[in-house]
Amino acid sequence: MTPTRIAIAAALASALAGTVAISERAEAQGKMTVEKCYGVSKAGQNDCQTDNSSCAGTSKKDNQPDAWIAVPKGTCQKIVGGMVKS
Amino acid sequence: MTLALREWQATFAAQLAGGGGEGRLAIHRHNISSSLIRSLGATLSTVRALVGEEFFRQAAQAFISRGLPTQPVLAEYGADFAGFIEAYPSAESLPYLADVARLDWALNVAFHSPRLEAADLSAVPPERLAASALVLAPGVALVRSAYPLDRIWAVSQPGAPEGTVDLDGGAARLLVHRRADDATFIALGEGEAAFVEVLGEGQVVEVAAGAALAVEPAFDLTAAFARLLACEVFAALRQ
Amino acid sequence: MNAVAGIGLRAPHLREIDRDRPALGFLEIHAENYLTPSSSLATVERLRADYRFSVHAVGLSLGSVDGLDAVHLARVATLVKRLEPDLVSDHLSWSTFGGRYFNDLLPLPYTEEALEVVTRNLDRLQEALGRQVSVENPSCYLDFPHSTMSEPAFLAELVRRSGCGLLLDANNIHVTAHNLGLDPRAWLDGLPAAAITEYHLAGHAVNETDSGRVLIDDHGSKVADAVWALHAECLARFGPRPTLIEWDSDIPALPVLLGEAQRAQAMLAAGGSHDARAA
């Protein structure tokens, strides 16, 4: 067995033994722990209704969905900077 | 002459998808759009929050017109939204938006994945574990971004405190996983991300640890492994 | 299942119902929301121990000339096997054509050919589930000149040919009758009372458009007075059955739904002696 494997095995064993306080470490590093996330309140995409705005189908503007271009107006206004080129 | 039902449904479907057939048929056409936009908005809720309702509706409409769902489970509709938004001209000013869509989709997939009993790795001799490959739990996914994706996500949630995010705040590597009642993610370090990625490719633990050390010399295997265990990321030893 | 009142179980109320376990005759879920092993399904399986259930599908597309989607059918069958609900239902409509899913309950022309298509699909569905399925009358915005029979006549014949049940939605009857210029009470004539397994109730929206008033089945408000009256007529003619309150848009706080269910329950109690099935 290589020294590397022995060292790795020892590291794994101590992780499995639960010797590391995970949450403390995450907090110390400023890493975010998410409390409420993608949960049941967002699930349930299939429903059983006719959207009432569908009735606007009789008016003219709804037949030209590309006649205007919407501008992003949400929490993106909280995102600043942006010199990074991906 | 009366159309046979097949031709009749084909005509009706064509009018729904492509326009034509005005009047009350438009009620059905609009309902299909608006219900799918609503569904995409639930699945991609962070994207929607970032761009606002009006922009989201327009983007989702453009997405829908490229392809309707092919089956009725709407939680499974929108897999390629990130690819769509990446090439969507109106979203050019938001270069991080496709990454947000990837994160939303990964959370959606994790939420709908089975929660298996986590593997009891403590029963495996550590030397054998080091030489083993591990199966990641269903729904586990690594989302990488050149932007501080976790902070962008956080400020876009309902009830988030005021504050801004600097887009130059550094890259993010987010590990998405299922929990008992929901799906969530944790931010990984460079080494941790490489470790998970290489494990995900089916390599054994010591190879993954080597890859992690190569990108982050200070990589702490004990801490990383404990953290991943706590998230129930490992489903089983790969046979 | 006894003739009790229940509500459609919606995601925003899932945790509250799981925690508080309010008194309800039954819960109804949309099958398509529980076909993945999500934690929502785990919650529903927990609730199943304490509540009667109905599984209401919205996407089987019983009117599809293409036939049922084998994959979707198998998923629904797995869910039904898992929950063993008292009732299973879908709509008299279609939503799939040529491999594309139109997320809507699309109308059918009521012809002999359509009857054969729906009967064939229902036969396959009932065989796959090993049980009776009920078919709900849809809300209609269009009618078609080449229809050769009325909607209730179509449903009655469907019952005769397939042995399916009927899920009668008084709100949908009200909406359809208004939009197509029919008499809602005459619509009830000739329905096979014994086949009716469940009632649905929901709110609708009223819209004034360029071409007159259109009612939209938006499930977004309390049940309208006219619909309660029509429902009372159904109870008087056909007898009590499990009655469901549905609410899908602008979903209110749970007590509002429970209040509507109590009203439905009170009507069942008042008319409980006229059970047409028992007659």
CATH topology of the largest domain in chain B: Outer Surface Protein A, domain 3
Residue share in helices of chain A? 10-25%
Counting helices, strands and paired strands, the structural category of chain B is mainly alpha
Strand line-up across the major sheet of chain B: 2-4-5
| Terminus-to-terminus distance of chain A | 43 Å
Radius of gyration based on Cα positions of chain B: 22 Å
Describe the protein's architecture and organization.
The complex is a heterotrimer of chains A (86), B (239) and C (279). Chain A is built from two helices and two strands. Chain A has helices at residues 3-16, 22-28; strands at residues 38-39, 79-80. In chain A, 24% of the residues lie in helices and 5% in strands. Chain A has a domain at 1-42. Chain B is mainly alpha-helical and 239 residues long. Chain B folds into two domains: 1-94, no CATH class; 113-239, Outer Surface Protein A, domain 3. Chain B is 50% helix and 11% strand. In chain B, the strands form two sheets. Chain B has a three-stranded antiparallel sheet with strand order 2-4-5, with helices on both faces. Chain B has a two-stranded antiparallel sheet with strand order 1-6. In chain B, strand 4 (172-178) and strand 5 form a beta hairpin. Chain C has helices spanning 14-20, 39-48, 70-83, 112-129, 151-162, 170-180, 184-187, 225-238, 254-270, and strands at residues 5-8, 26-30, 52-56, 87-91, 94-97, 100-106, 134-136, 165-169, 196-201, 205-209, 212-216, 243-245. In chain C, strands 1-2-3-4-7-8-9-12 form an eight-stranded parallel β-barrel. Chain C has a two-stranded antiparallel sheet with strand order 5-6. In chain C, strands 10-11 form a two-stranded antiparallel ribbon. In chain C, strand 1, helix 1 and strand 2 (26-30) form a beta-alpha-beta unit. The interface between B and C is large, with 39 and 43 residues.
